[in-house]
Design brief:
The structure is a single chain. By secondary structure, the protein is an all-alpha fold. It folds into 2 domains: 38-111; 114-156, no CATH class. Helices cover 64% and strands 0% of the residues. The protein is built from 8 helices and no strands. The chain has helices spanning 2-15, 27-30, 41-57, 63-71, 77-93, 99-110, 113-125, 133-146. Helix 7 (113-125) packs antiparallel against helix 8. The longest helix has 17 residues, at 41-57. It is flat. The N and C termini lie far apart (88 Å).
Length: 157
């Protein structure tokens, strides 16, 4: 009887599929904290990208939490004044603004206008030359995204 039992166990061991361990990626350790933003418009684009990655990696999805986390990273100068103004408004209204409205306001206040003008000029003089079409399009799209005010392809001609 013990021989039959051993055969069944061996047969079950062969038919049971092995379960591969699930690899868990910890994005928190991959994305560094963006640091303080002190109101320098030339630094905003890089800081803003880092902050959005940091929020996503740390799974901060609630609008109120995202806005508070961002305002908590503003320090001194115009950034400190902006934070105080936003906090006063939030406390007065007892409500947090929508994420879209907050994001648009941040970009209006802190985007580097000279980068947009530079991107527009680069687009006007940009030619393909001997570049591979993919390289040309990647650079073109990067320049176009820096100049957000362009709404029609007619401006590129």
């Amino acid at each position: 009887m013990s021989g039959t039992h051993t055969g069944t166990s061996a047969s079950m061991a062969r038919t049971t599929p092995a379960v591969a361990p699930i690899e868990v990626v910890n994005y928190k350790s991959m994305v560094p904290e963006p640091g303080w933003f002190k109101g320098d418009r030339k630094m905003f684009e890089d800081w803003w990208r880092a902050m959005k990655l940091y929020l996503r990696a740390n799974k901060v999805t609630d609008t109120n939490e995202k806005i508070i986390a961002i305002l908590g990273k503003f320090q001194g100068g115009t950034a400190g004044a902006f934070t105080q103004q936003k906090l006063d408004k939030i406390e007065q209204d007892n409500d947090t603004p929508s994420w879209d409205a907050f994001e648009v306001e941040l970009q209006l206040v802190y985007s580097d206008k000279t980068k947009e003008a530079d991107a527009e000029w680069c687009i006007k003089i940009f030619i393909q030359g001997r570049k591979h079409i993919t390289d040309f399009l990647i650079k073109f799209m990067a320049l176009a995204s820096k100049h957000r005010q362009m709404t029609s392809m007619q401006y590129f001609c």
